[in-house]
Design goal:
By secondary structure, the protein is α/β, with parallel strands linked by helices. The protein folds into two domains: 3-162 and 350-361, Glycogen Phosphorylase B (Rossmann fold, 3-Layer(aba) Sandwich), CATH 3.40.50.2000; 182-341, Rossmann fold, CATH 3.40.50.2000. It is 43% helix and 19% strand. It has 15 helices and 14 strands. An eight-stranded mixed beta sheet has the order 3-4-2-1-5-6-7-8, sandwiched between helices. A six-stranded parallel beta sheet has the order 11-10-9-12-13-14, sandwiched between helices. Strand 1 (3-7), helix 1 and strand 2 form a beta-alpha-beta unit. The termini are close together.
Length: 365
């Protein structure tokens, strides 16, 4: 079997990178020897279910994390480098040149618009330039949806492996009526992901219903974080802020939810994709209220599992939340979504595609 280095773009443990985790579990199950190389708050080696995680401190001058990760990647006796996201793609130029070993690049974000949103125009331009240089040099590209796959196909071979949830981490539950409805949001907390809209709509709903809200995830903007907590306190919303939660610990939280929210704002990188959280909600039997988009609308319609809505219209969002709660059928919508997704939209149904790619570029059987 192959010795594989998983090279991470960002901190693996906090927030827990569930895509990396799902992939390494599949690789380990197939008998490969895996080491995860990740930035971290300190340099240490940790064990994750028998998988070695080599952590490298982010403290130091600019470029120090790249130096530490590349140094370990060159030192290890690896047969394959599996690089996640942007920085490791750039590192792969060095790794391929010096080791002649194959590189698989896993791109699970629309990197250029994401860089523009979070870091500005210059970062987006530089990202586009480096992708044009580095991406054609890797052996294979793995990505998460067909649209992104078509965009990346100009660089080389591409396989789409959606970031579906795992049945192992989201065991089936029996839906029971809640004494008090509970809204749930899971994911990064940004304006573009609808945090302000979500809280303002929740405030309107609270004026008519005893209803609670649980939010799992972290802020990227300190000003938005300050606004959110102050808005919560000022309006007595009593939101249950859980911060980032380990992917393997999400199922009990989902079990307490009545409706799952995904109110992505009108951005190009969101319109033609389906957020992973939608599938996580659905396989746990939670009906969804979500933003519009052709793929999302088709999924929700075919699964009879929720509502797609103008995600920028606060009054309409609050109205639809209230209508869904009043609708005695909304629990049945969750059950319908669960039946629709649990056999098809799961990681276990696609993991062999990943293992076949690895087999193609190593001597493993």
């Amino acid at each position: 079997m192959a010795n594989i280095a998983i090279v991470c773009d960002r901190e693996f443990f906090s927030p827990f990178d569930q895509r990396v985790y799902k992939e390494v579990v599949s690789m380990k199950k197939a008998g490969h020897n895996i080491e995860i190389l990740t930035p971290h708050i300190s340099s240490e080696t940790r064990d994750l279910e028998g998988i070695k995680v080599r952590c490298f401190s982010k403290n130091g001058p600019p470029g120090i994390v790249a130096y530490r990760l590349i140094k370990q990647a060159l030192r290890g006796n690896y047969d394959l480098f599996y690089c996640h996201e942007f920085d490791p793609l750039v590192y792969s130029l060095v790794l391929k040149t010096l080791t002649k070993k194959p590189v698989i690049w896993d791109c699970h974000e629309y990197l250029i618009p994401m860089k523009k949103e979070l870091q500005g125009n210059l970062a987006a331009v530089l990202t586009e330039i480096m992708m044009k240089i580095a991406a054609p040099k890797v052996e294979h590209i793995v990505t998460v949806d067909n649209l992104l796959g078509r965009q990346l196909a100009k660089f080389g071979k591409v396989t789409v492996i959606p970031n579906y949830p795992t049945l192992a981490d989201f065991p089936e539950k029996n839906n029971t009526p809640k004494k008090e409805p509970n809204l749930l949001y899971v994911g990064g907390l940004t304006r573009k992901r609808g945090v302000k809209v979500m809280l303002e709509a929740f405030n309107l709903v609270r004026k008519e219903f005893d209803i609670s809200m649980t939010i799992v995830g972290g802020f990227y903007d300190s000003e938005l974080e300050k606004w959110a907590y102050e808005f919560d306190e000022k309006n007595g919303l009593n939101i249950n802020w859980l911060g980032w939660v380990n992917y393997r610990d999400l199922a009990p939280i989902f079990s307490e939810a009545s409706i799952g929210l995904c109110l992505l704002q009108n951005q190009k990188r969101y319109r033609n994709a389906i957020s992973t959280k939608i599938f996580e909600y659905l396989i746990m039997g939670i009906p969804v209220i979500t933003s519009k988009g052709p793929l999302l609308e088709s999924l929700v319609k075919n699964g009879n599992c929720g509502i797609c809505i103008d995600s920028e219209n606060i009054e309409l969002i609050s109205k639809k939340i209230i209508e869904m709660i009043k609708d005695k059928n909304y629990a049945n919508m969750g059950e319908s979504g669960k039946k629709f997704t649990r056999s098809k939209f799961i990681w276990e149904a696609r993991e062999n595609n990943l293992l076949n790619i690895i087999k193609q570029y190593t001597n493993s059987n």
